[in-house]
Amino acid sequence: MMIDLINKLEKEHSLTADEYKYLIDNRNEEYASMLSEKAVDIRKKIYGNAVFIRGLIEISNICKNDCLYCGIRGGNKNCDRFRLTKEQILSCCENGYSLGFRTFVMQGGEDMYFSDDVMCDIISEIKTRYPDCAITLSLGERSYESYKKLFDAGADRYLLRHETADKAHYAKLHPDNLSFDKRMQCLENLKKIGFQTGCGFMVGSPFQTSEHLAKDLKFIEEFKPEMCGIGPFIPHKDTVFNNYTPGTVELTCYLLSIIRLISPSILLPATTALGSIDPVGREKGILAGANVVMPNLSPLDTRVKYSLYNNKLSSGAESAQGKAILEDKINSIGYRIVTDRGDYKRI
Asked: Whole-model pTM?
């Protein structure tokens, strides 16, 4: 039955939630190898052996929310807070552009300093200086009107992880003032406005079951995001989940392959979290079907402060300054870093 399901997924790009659950529950090395081979084959038909790089700029670790798994949650008194100025952000872009980056990803906690006016000013300035570059934002939940202003100012893409497609599970990971329904509405709004939209979830998060993961896969199939970021859950020492077991590279890569078969054109990162728990985790992600990496362009003295989870990598190949190291690693597995905006290809 497993082989039949894998072939069906490759052909139809769709399974039932129960079938996704069956794929997860009955996985083994043979099936993982079969899935990754098919995922790589379908990705190569669309993107060749290109791996797109994005320059990550962590603009603030100040956050009004108190998500139970996150190291920069508002309630963490041990977090050393920072906020980049417009000038610092533009300096990161200047450095990144000279290194060959053509997408800048501005990520941060839900810091109310970065109002629509502030963000639109920064976005329009980046676009004026670097008109051949794409801008991706990952700044959490905002109103429809706010998203529209950011889009009109020149932002191209927006990443907003849905975290889990199960409402009850969502409630176990977030404080009462955060709403599953609002998160889903934000994602719908982003799509409606015209952003290339990204969702995503943690693999192995507290209380997660294969049924939850099957719902995540069905949500991705139906929502049809242009991007999807998944990575293993890694606990942070200053959260209520500090002693929980982390997710695995094995299951994350298995799910990357499935997502590639669900959505052949999707932009799929090999996340920092993969590299943080396995020295070759990023490479394993690419060999499973991923085609995006996001080295860090943030100022050196703030990278360690953007601590979402324990032992988050920010140097070496995870650093924009380590682009040559990253290129060597990517080349060693038969792929190449591409200096390109790396837009989603509609087929």
From this structure: 0.96
